[in-house]
Design goal:
This protein has helices at about 1-25, 45-60, 70-75, 90-105, 125-135, 145-150, 180-190; strands spanning about 60-65, 70, 80-85, 110-120, 140-145, 160-165, 170-175. The termini are far apart. The chain folds into 2 domains: about 1-30; about 30-190, Glutaredoxin, CATH 3.40.30. Strands 5-4-3-6-7 form a 5-stranded mixed beta sheet. The protein has a two-stranded antiparallel ribbon with strand order 1-2. By secondary structure, it is α/β, with parallel strands linked by helices. The chain is built from 7 helices and 7 strands, in the order ααββαβαβαβαββα. InterPro entries: Thioredoxin-like_fold, Thioredoxin-like_sf, Thioredoxin_domain, Thioredoxin_ResA/DsbE_sf. This is TlpA disulfide reductase family protein.
Length: about 190
């Protein structure tokens, strides 16, 4: 009897360790160590990096609410802010209320493109829809299987790209930002 209990306990431990390893290795997006704190640095990419990001931004595609493939060029002809987020992310939960305020202030002149990073593990289409429906009114899109995030080298969320009217990336924020910092960025492309 003791041998069976030992084998069963060992099997459970192996399954738990395997599950933990799976979750860690399949998760490509992380949060900053300073969870829900606002960044003190707003350093920006070089002109070359912005040009490369612009090229990648113009090539990405994502899914609309009807699961139809679309792109930034198809969604907007105005300046825009592209936001990568997930419902499980505490940093995103802290940043979204600020973005909602800015959406009310700037939505006439600037498009807000919220890309839900759907990895099918921590984030699903349904979890993103449920979170937004309970808290916000803006339209969002799905980055299914992190295809767009990978193309733009998004390694943590929230990450926000500010685009001018020609859909060129002019600023990038790879962590939470204050309302003032984001407002200034949006004013610069308005």
């Amino acid at each position: 009897m003791k041998k069976r209990e030992l084998v069963a306990a060992l099997a459970i431990v192996i399954l738990l360790v395997g599950g933990i390893i799976y979750l860690v290795t399949t998760s490509s997006l992380t949060q900053d160590v300073t969870t829900t704190e606002v960044a003190t640095s707003t350093s920006q990419p070089t002109e070359e990096e912005l040009a490369s990001l612009t090229k990648s931004m113009q090539a990405i595609s994502f899914l609309d609410e009807n699961d139809q493939e679309t792109s930034v060029k198809e969604v907007t002809t105005k300046p825009a802010i592209v936001v990568f987020w997930a419902s499980w992310c505490p940093d995103c939960q802290a940043q979204l209320p600020i973005l909602a305020k800015l959406y009310k202030k700037y939505s006439e002149d600037i498009d807000f493109i919220f890309l839900n990073v759907v990895d099918q593990t921590r984030e699903t289409k349904e979890s993103g829809q449920k979170y937004l429906a309970a808290n916000y009114e803006f339209t969002y899109y799905q980055d299914k299987d992190l295809v767009a995030a990978d193309s733009l080298k998004v390694t943590n969320i929230p990450t926000m790209f500010v685009l001018n009217g020609q859909q060129e990336v002019v600023q990038v924020f790879r962590s939470n930002q204050t309302e003032e910092v984001l407002s200034k960025a949006l004013e610069s492309v308005k």
